[in-house]
């Protein structure tokens, strides 16, 4: 046992490197890309101290170069889910009894590994496996990953410091206990940092975790586990398994020691998870914590006083960075008719300069979408928009999967504000624009609020402060992350905690203490230094 009230190092946001021509980081990551492309990785499941392989080996290919093989992973089944749960529960008591500052030390070391010796490797893995440009990989896999680790340690210490008052003769305190079982983390393909944060945030708070990543993110998930292990994370605290979603979900939802799910993915899958937990709630030893960030149909709405150049730039970056595969990506826009000519001119001119191709070529602004299923879905919506009478494809609209899953950045102009691509999540580089009469600002705000079931991110552009305030009021529940004169993407840990409501999730704000506090169960302790020895109160005495 230690003695001392420890202060953790102050958290900070990892500086983003430029990767400009001639920079050392550019040379380093290019060397790492060449090295990783020349190797074929063999990726096992991490269950306790074992590295588990099965007879079902599945190949991994860059989405932008589908003929190249990066490696193989091994798909597991129900027995591997149970193995991972058993491994987690075996180490649970020893991990929870470890001093909090020792847990902090592990994850602070992991942050320095991410931003230091592993920086080029985690970036290169994300570029190759998920088709991110170097800039998109840098802000995600290197910077946000490190930010989550450093800020979560700080948030942990802040939570532990929150204590009740004590009256004379009494000492009140709160103990923040880890949950009594295991956490199930299900992570998406689109952000390496999210894939790392969902299992590590509960672990920082003393919990043990079974982690199932998206199959299309396994290549960089393997590097995440390398980092955690080098940082000193004990075997079994985070167990990495590759199993079909329904297999893991069925076992998890019915296990008595299941105490929580940390999820990022589709709304439909999250709804199924929630229902499965409810159907099996009588089997659990405690009510599970359900934390999820799901879909989005993120908006940009402009007032007639908006800056058209800033608006057009926000649309290009917000809609097409990382091929529109961000939960926060701008996918529907409402532009007043007085601004549309200038916005259209700037938007189309910028889009003509966008280069798309393999991310190893740093001149490309966009790579490929994640897989063939996504490609086929997006191609279908684009083809329909070319034929439908209420829409016109004014930019892009082409696609090709000969060498990789490439979808051109596409802009659909619609006369129907309820057209399908104005309310259904596509998760790709497709932006739909509705031009409204500039005199109908308030009506359009209500239209924005009602059109989509989601409420993740949104942005308003205006110079008129009264218009901004009106938008703030009407759209108060339309977005969990809300931007004024800025694109609706790019939330930074510690600055813009991320999450939304309605069909977009539980809004537990990753990148803040609000998320970490979900992974503890508080115990209030009252100690009386001079307890009474007579049950009688003064009011019982005779007059």
Summarize the structure.
The protein is an alpha/beta fold and 543 residues long. It has helices at 24-38, 78-97, 100-115, 119-130, 134-161, 192-204, 218-230, 245-254, 267-279, 308-320, 340-352, 372-387, 441-451, 465-474, 513-516, and strands at 41-43, 45-47, 50-52, 57-60, 71-74, 170-178, 182-186, 208-212, 238-240, 258-264, 289-293, 298-302, 330-336, 391-395, 399-400, 406-407, 410-414, 430-436, 454-455, 457-461, 481-484, 501-502, 520-528.
Poorly predicted regions are none
Report, as a whole number of angstroms, the end-to-end distance. Answer: 55 Å
Helix content: 25-40%
Strand content bin: 15-25%
Given helix and strand content, the structural type is alpha/beta
Q: Largest sheet at a glance? A: 7 strands, mixed
| Form type | globular
DSSP helical segment count: 15
Strand order across the largest sheet:
14-17-18-13-12-20-21
Total number of beta strands: 23
Radius of gyration: 25 Å
Mean pLDDT: 97
Description:
With 543 residues, the protein is of the alpha/beta class. The chain has 15 helices and 23 strands. The strands form seven sheets. The protein has a seven-stranded mixed β-sheet, sandwiched between helices. Strand 15 (399-400) and strand 16 (406-407) form a beta hairpin. Helix 1 (24-38) packs across helix 4 (119-130), helix 4 (119-130) crosses helix 5 and helix 10 (308-320) crosses helix 11.
What's the structural blueprint in terms of helices and strands?
Layout: H1 24-38, E1 41-43, E2 45-47, E3 50-52, E4 57-60, E5 71-74, H2 78-97, H3 100-115, H4 119-130, H5 134-161, E6 170-178, E7 182-186, H6 192-204, E8 208-212, H7 218-230, E9 238-240, H8 245-254, E10 258-264, H9 267-279, E11 289-293, E12 298-302, H10 308-320, E13 330-336, H11 340-352, H12 372-387, E14 391-395, E15 399-400, E16 406-407, E17 410-414, E18 430-436, H13 441-451, E19 454-455, E20 457-461, H14 465-474, E21 481-484, E22 501-502, H15 513-516, E23 520-528
Parallel strand pairs: 1-5, 7-8, 7-10, 8-9, 10-11, 12-13, 12-20, 13-18, 17-18, 20-21
Antiparallel strand pairs: 2-3, 4-5, 6-23, 14-17, 15-16, 19-22
Helix pairs in contact: 1-4, 3-5, 4-5, 4-7, 5-6, 10-11, 13-14
